[in-house]
Design a protein that fits this description.
Chain lengths: 89, 195
Amino acid sequence: MSATRLHPMTLVWLALLGATALSFALAESAGAVRIASALVMLIAGFKVRLVFLYFMELGGGAMPWRAIAELWVAGVTTLIVVCYLMATG
Amino acid sequence: MLDSAGGAARRRLAGDEGVWFFITADLMMFAVFFAVFMTARLDEVALFEQSRQRLNPAIGLLNTAILLSSSWLVALAVHAARAGRREAVSRLLGLGILVGSGFAVSKACEYTAKISAGVTLLTNHFFMYYFALTGLHFVHFLAGMAVLGVCWRKSRHEAIDGRFLVWLESAGCYWHMVDLLWIFLFPMLYLLRAA
């Protein structure tokens, strides 16, 4: 069972589960709370982008929807991270 | 045979454009809600942190795994439909709905535990946002399950043709939106710790 035989959607799913496990471990880790929490949100943004590009098939560049999705992910991730850092800084 | 129909119908955008307008409107609405929650948190960091600690992140993690897995099964169903594999479409959609229904069970348990512990919308600002945001997301979840159910029934009784494919792609994109909204909601509500 080589990894190359896996369906592309399965690879995306595994990447999403792996990123989820990583962000959960970061959130539960001791120390460097601000950096860990900001990283957790950045990972969430990365996961959402994977969903847009692969599960929702915007990776082919269907405009203007791809641009809207990219701007939405970047905007929401930035908003949450900046507000979080302002509250703790 | 669907290969030709599906190939001819293969567009750069998965699903109906009208559904994408709806998805975009929903995304913008949730972006505003995220902004409202995060700015409210600025004023009451200690209260939001104490309240956050009353949530069980393991349940949030389980819900994330459930929605990601259901989304994956639905994405596989779309690919199976393009290949004209009716049995696989029906099986994958059925599994996607079954796995997705775990989210409803988990959420019902979580809400019941909170309410029986005396935690409601009126407890404080954090829980007002928690119930409002997760409740609104849950309404979207229920709508997604209903639409997937319609697609599952169609996959068993109707032709797997280009028209069906547009239905399935549109339903799938809506379902993935329910998934991605939760991807932001989970860390924002359950994992963001105050330093």
